[in-house]
Design brief:
By secondary structure, the chain is mostly beta strands. The protein has helices at 2-14, 126-131, 137-141, 207-210, 348-351, and strands at residues 19-27, 38-41, 46-49, 55-60, 64-70, 77-82, 88-93, 103-104, 112-113, 121-125, 147-153, 156-161, 169-173, 176-177, 198-203, 217-222, 231-241, 246-257, 260-271, 275-276, 280-281, 287-300, 303-316, 331-335, 341-345, 360-376, 379-395, 406-420, 430-432. A nine-stranded antiparallel beta sheet has the order 17-18-19-22-23-26-27-28-29, with helices on one face.
């Protein structure tokens, strides 16, 4: 109903107010036109690719917007363009061996450049996450200054920012707060790391923007942007780690046909017990992980509407560290008969098994989110509605392994409606519900 209302508002306020931006992207040193450069508009979540002549063209209702130009081998160029003054531009890109600028959205109502943001923000690109030898995404982020983790195994890691964690740090994904991991030591993040395009880490209080739980900061996990019109791509990611036999793969396809966008991904990961120089292999620290997610939406000159659906399943073992008094080796309980349980020394096959032993958890996380953004009178009406269901069961009874001892069920509804007024004398404001 709200989306239909947005369309009505668009017809009432947006008609006849289209603006056009066209231009050419060239090499700064040679003046050569650059085909294949990406032109991205973060406020609209859309973009395009320059043609064989290095040219591009966009239509929108906004009269002022942030634009990012990028091409492999060149520095990113970010600028704000006022379409009431400029409708045709020529952009020069300078050669570079790495990207040095980034558009960030954490802690700000509008897309802004990183060096203009008053809050300290660290931007982690997907390449750094993929290249790190980590077992989950929080483990990968823990290498950043000021960031650490609380972990009880390969599959369970909680973020800590400058010494504060649990419900003092908010994790945002798909535009809403991730619910289900804030409290216990053995609660991890229910997010597929393969589906994260970049991570923005806000270090410092952000309670005014995100609520009281953001006392230490915010970790914003962002999906990849929509492709330009007429493009369809596929991706296969695989990894293997020798320490804990970790294997992982992810299959992805996404596209954009006439403004109708989609992004579908399936991922699977597993690991057996990890090892360290003090204990050797640590029993029952393996896990299994499955996830599936899809994004369906529409991108237009008046804004966008995206539906995010995801399912996440994790079965992690819980390390207890019990050892034999004589040998000091790890032990595990086994059933001798229907009523007798005996501890035996863990074998090599137990250490290398990808099936967690007792105790272990079964975690299911379901999420549905719809994000809308519609341009009205040069302002932007944005809304986010989400539903999350987190089911967490813990199994610790060796005689009846299918009988859970703990069962946590958390349902969360998220909603946010806000209107960003257009810039007036270089000031911006928004009204939020």
């Amino acid at each position: 109903m709200l989306f239909a209302l947005f369309l009505v508002n668009h017809q009432s306020y947006g008609a006849g107010q289209k603006a056009h931006l066209s231009g050419t992207v060239v090499d700064k040193n040679t003046g050569e036109k650059l085909p294949g450069a990406t032109v991205y508009f973060p406020d609209l979540k859309t973009g395009c690719i320059t043609d064989i002549n290095g040219s591009f063209k966009l239509k929108t209702c906004l009269k002022k917007l942030v634009v990012q130009f990028s091409l492999l081998g060149y520095k990113n160029f970010i600028t704000t363009i006022d379409l009431t003054i400029t409708s045709t531009i020529t952009v020069t890109l300078e050669e570079s061996v790495k990207e040095i600028n980034a558009i960030v959205v954490t802690g700000s109502a509008y897309a802004v450049e990183k060096n203009r943001t008053p809050t300290p923000i660290t931007v982690i690109q997907k390449s750094l996450i993929v290249e790190s030898s980590s077992s989950n995404i929080i483990d990968a982020l823990a290498a950043q200054p000021g960031i650490s983790q609380i972990t009880t195994g390969s599959g369970i890691s909680k973020p800590v920012i400058r010494g504060l964690g649990y419900n003092r740090v908010i994790v945002v994904n798909d535009g809403i707060k991730q619910e289900g991991q804030q409290w216990g030591d053995e609660h991890g993040i229910e997010i597929d790391e393969y589906g994260v395009d970049k991570v923005e880490i806000l270090k410092g209080p952000a309670s005014l923007m995100y609520g009281s739980d953001a006392m230490a900061g915010v970790i914003n996990m962002i999906s990849s942007p929509s492709l330009s019109d007429g493009n369809i791509t596929g991706e296969i990611l695989t990894e293997y780690q020798t320490n804990n036999g970790l294997y992982g793969y992810s299959l992805n396809t996404k596209g954009n046909l006439k403004g109708y966008v989609w992004d579908a991904r399936f991922s699977n990961k597993g690991a057996h017990s990890y090892q360290n120089k003090f204990d050797g292999q640590v029993y029952n620290t393996g896990y299994k992980e499955y996830s599936a997610q899809t994004i369906l939406g529409i991108n237009r000159f008046w804004g966008f509407s995206h539906l995010h659906l995801s399912y996440y399943n994790l079965t992690p073992g819980l390390a207890e560290g019990e050892r034999d008094d004589l040998t000091g080796k790890f032990i595990k309980p086994v059933v001798i008969n229907d009523t007798t349980v005996e501890n035996v020394i863990v074998s090599n096959s137990d250490f290398n098994s990808y099936t967690p032993g007792i105790p272990y958890q079964k975690i299911n996380h379901y999420k549905a989110v719809i994000n809308n953004s519609v341009i009205i009178n040069q302002g932007t009406l944005k809304s986010t509605f989400g539903y999350q269901l987190n089911e967490r069961k813990e199994f610790a009874e060796i005689i009846d392994p299918n009988q859970y001892g703990l069962y946590f069920k958390l349902e969360t509804f998220n909603y946010e409606v806000k209107y960003h007024f257009p810039e007036f004398k270089k000031n911006k404001s928004d009204y939020r519900i």
